[in-house]
Design a protein that fits this description.
This protein is an alpha+beta fold. It has a single domain, classed as Jelly Rolls. A hairpin with a 4-residue loop joins strand 5 and strand 6. The protein is globular and about 45 Å long. It binds calcium ion (4 copies).
Length: 210
């Protein structure tokens, strides 16, 4: 009877657990004047902050390398760079980082240069995931740029920026207060949620019309 009860409780927990879901963000890196010396000669490192509850398990999956000539993220451009991701606490303590990954293909990636990070957060709090061109230090991740470094596309395309897409799969726990500012795609971090919502609604409406 005890065994049966335990099994029933386990089943109830399984049913009550929220289904895994994913959040998709898009942006670009490009040269900016990060050190304010009057020259846009510093390379942006995208910073995305978020809160998690204790025990939250996330999988960060990037898509940046459109090596097959197919516009994988549907932004009308073919770009690519060898990206690198780093996970830190809001205070700047390094947690983990990844350059290349064999687990990157679930989001449509075609090249292992697209990094991934899987991480389970033991402590609730605010954390930061960063995405930039290989490679950068913890202090560069915190300031959000690499000084005196120019962007270059992977195959010499005459582009001044690199597009990226980041899919965050929430395998357990919860993520909130996702916020990032991207100098070209997102004007105001406070409106990111609203814009994402509007974009999703817009896409749904577009799909319905077709
Ligand atoms: Ca500068
Ligand atoms: Ca593209
Ligand atoms: Ca990927
Ligand atoms: Ca890489």
């Amino acid at each position: 009877m005890k065994k049966f009860l335990a099994r029933l409780l386990a089943l109830a927990a399984l049913v009550a657990a929220p289904a895994a879901h994913a959040i998709t963000l898009n942006g670009e890196i490009r040269n900016i004047d990060g050190d304010n010396d009057g020259f846009a000669d510093d390379l942006l490192i995208q910073r995305i902050s978020f809160d998690v509850t204790a025990g939250t398990s996330l999988f960060f999956d990037s898509l940046v390398w459109e090596a097959t000539g197919v516009d994988l993220n549907g932004d009308g451009e073919l770009t690519g760079f060898d990206n690198y991701m780093m996970l830190l606490t809001a205070g700047g303590s390094y947690l983990t980082a990844n350059d290349d990954s064999g687990a990157t293909y679930g989001d449509g990636s075609v090249h292992p240069y697209d990094s991934t990070i899987g991480y389970t957060f033991g402590t609730a709090g605010t954390y930061v995931i960063t995405l930039g061109q290989l490679a950068y230090s913890t202090s560069e991740a915190m300031q959000g740029y690499q000084a005196n470094r120019n962007y270059y596309d992977y195959n010499g395309n005459n582009l001044d920026h690199g597009d990226w897409r980041l899919t965050i799969s929430v395998n357990s726990g919860s993520i909130s207060n996702l916020s990032y500012s991207n100098s070209n795609s997102v004007p105001d971090t406070a409106t990111v949620g609203a814009m994402l919502g509007a974009a999703i609604l817009g896409l749904a409406a577009f799909k319905r019309r077709r």
